[in-house]
Specification:
ChlI/MoxR_AAA_lid, five-stranded parallel sheet, AAA+_ATPase, CbbQ/NirQ/NorQ/GpvN, 11 strands, 15 helices, AAA family ATPase
Length: about 325
């Protein structure tokens, strides 16, 4: 598809999801960045702000198969992936797919699942496939995982390890709505449910075409150097014990390409990287214990790195990419 058609696909999804999700334009854009770049999103926020509604609306707007996994401590990997059972009629063993065999999967309160169940998502998220009993099964594209967790409640939870966090493209928060946005939400809640039903405005095939186009988005060497410079600085910056891995570098580059597409461009500009860096890199950083005493966060240190890095001239980057 052309740049204009890719942008139009993004616009259709944004408009349709925006019918039921009030005041979350930036969040919807970030979800589209995740979807179009082939990444996955961790939504971290308190209950009741619309995380589940957002996931369902996005799935419906692209006509994708949707499944929801309610994570609890007694949830087993086979409950998510699926299991092999004996069919008495055929006299053979057959595999019954679990909820992970959907195009958009919502893992609700993922930090309530035990580590063994959390890790069952790793292969699917990283490689788009599931291996059971020595058989590898490809997942249908587009495959997109949205996981939620409550950052306040810690009783009965299992914090996601760094390896699991690294599989998420971004960790984002919806936040509370403004006064007027909350008024609109309240009024929407009293409308007929049929009037708020989300329709498929694009197809999964359209999404796959945009994903393929994202990989072709141009990035000049100057913008590449800026991207690499940011990532390498996280590995040597004072206060950061473990910096961003090459996987994080690739993730930020892919996210910037997807952002360029939904902004109507076929090339990346430095502002794309600067805007996305806190959202893509922060959850990949491990800080020294001394930073807790200084009450500094990963975002604080990443802001220092961004301020210390030389940004390429945007017009030159755009001109060179054309």
């Amino acid at each position: 598809m052309t740049t204009e058609k890719n942008y139009e696909v993004a616009q259709r999804i944004r408009k349709e999801v925006g019918r039921v999700i009030v005041g979350q334009e930036e969040t919807i854009n970030l979800l589209l960045v995740g979807l179009f770049s082939g990444g996955h999103i961790l939504l971290e926020d308190v209950p009741g702000v619309g995380k589940t509604v957002l996931a369902k609306a996005l799935a419906a707007s692209i006509g994708a198969d949707f499944s929801r996994v309610q994570c609890t401590p007694d949830l087993l990997p086979s409950d998510v992936i699926g299991t092999t059972v004996f069919n008495q009629k055929s006299g053979e063993f057959e595999f019954r797919e679990g909820p992970l065999f959907a195009q958009l999967v919502l893992a609700d309160e993922i930090n309530r699942a035990i580590p063994r169940t959390q890790s069952s998502l790793l292969e699917a998220m990283a490689e788009g496939q599931i291996t059971t009993d020595g058989v590898t099964r490809a997942l249908e594209r587009p495959f997109f995982v949205m996981a939620t967790q409550n950052p306040i409640e810690s009783h009965g939870t299992f914090p996601l390890p760094e390896a699991q966090l690294d599989r998420f493209l971004m960790r984002i928060s919806l936040g509370y709505p403004s006064h007027e946005e909350e008024r609109r939400i309240f009024r929407l809640s009293r409308q007929d449910a049929k009037a708020l039903q989300i329709e498929a405005v694009v197809s999964p095939e359209d999404v796959i075409e945009v994903q393929n186009a994202v990989r072709q988005v141009k990035m000049t060497q100057e913008v590449e150097d800026y991207l690499i410079q940011l990532v390498r600085k996280t590995r040597e910056w004072d206060g950061i014990a473990i910096g961003v891995s090459p996987r994080g570098l690739i993730a930020l580059g892919a996210a910037a390409q997807a952002l360029a597409v939904i902004r109507g461009r076929d090339y990346v500009i430095p502002d794309d990287i600067k805007y996305l860096a806190p959202k893509v890199l922060t959850h990949r950083l491990v800080l020294d214990s001394s930073m807790r005493l200084k009450q500094k966060t990963a975002r604080d240190l990443l802001d220092e790195i961004l301020n210390d890095s030389t940004v390429p001239v945007e017009d030159d980057a755009a001109q060179a990419a054309r």
